[in-house]
Write the structure tokens for this entry.
Amino acid sequence: MTDVLDGVRDHYRATGLTLRLKAALAALGPEDRPLTPEQLAALDHFHTRGLAATAELARLVGMSAEMSVLDVGSGIGGPARFLAATLGCRVTGVDLSEPFVEAARYLTERTGQSGQVSFQTGSALALPFAEGSFDAALLQHVAMNIADRPLLYREIRRVLKAGGRFATYDVVLNGAEPHYPVPWARTPETSFLLTANATGEAIEAAGFRRLVWRDDTEAAKAWITQLRASGPPPAPNLGTVMGPDFAQLAANLGRSLMEGRLGILTAVFEAAPIR
Ligand SMILES: C[S@@+](CC[C@H](N)C(=O)[O-])C[C@H]1O[C@@H](n2cnc3c(N)ncnc32)[C@H](O)[C@@H]1O
């Protein structure tokens, strides 16, 4: 288990990330001018369909200002900052990658949201929170890095209140393994894809009731087609975070989706009472 987590940490090691972000963000203005979550969207939403997918997930959950929200595998924090800015809720992010958490805190200072949005280093398999701490939890493009899905979903259930909402937006296996390297794994050793049905079954077995179930593969394919037509994204973008091979990783995800090897699942669940 530790070997696998070390492999995943390695993939998201992002050496010198905060310093590289500081340098790249100079293109958006001086350090003392606050940035908006929208200005950072090409950089800090690390999933297909970017900011639009996060907004859609929040709508499906019925997220609101009084909710306390956990973002599991929060990356460099784009979804957390966007939700706090648009809905007014408090958001806590937790991520395995120390450099990502450091970068998430830095970017949150730059958007002036440190009072409302916070980040901690930790594993989704041992969430550093007490039972029943949150009204809602998000998991966006993270599960494919996690082998022990029963434990992952039990941990998310544990930290949610009864009746709380769990939204998952993830890459699923359709027909065949993807073309590696992909954005979440440079080799198959750190990729643990399940089919949509197996994902749903594992979530329900952890104490959840299904509310929304949607195949978003076609929407992801349309987004990729549009990206290909519009050329390289404006800098700074996810290449700043993941390094110069990111375009290749993203292209392999696109190709694997287009060939029907992979799909995209959006689903929302309600936390059943713990017996
Ligand atoms: C593709 S990124 C998605 C980041 C973020 N959810 C987003 O959509 O912008 C996957 C993230 O999952 C994190 N991750 C992978 N395995 C994890 C684990 N076991 N516990 C916590 N975070 C994990 C990685 O460090 C990385 O930040």
Remarks:
- The beta strands are 68-72, 90-95, 117-121, 134-140, 160-173, 208-215, 262-271.
- The chain has a mean pLDDT of 95.
- The longest strand covers residues 160-173.
- The pocket of S-adenosylmethionine is lined by residues 5, 8, 12, 45-47, 73-75, 78-79, 95-97, 100, 123-125, 140-142, 145-146, 183-184 (CB under 6 Å).
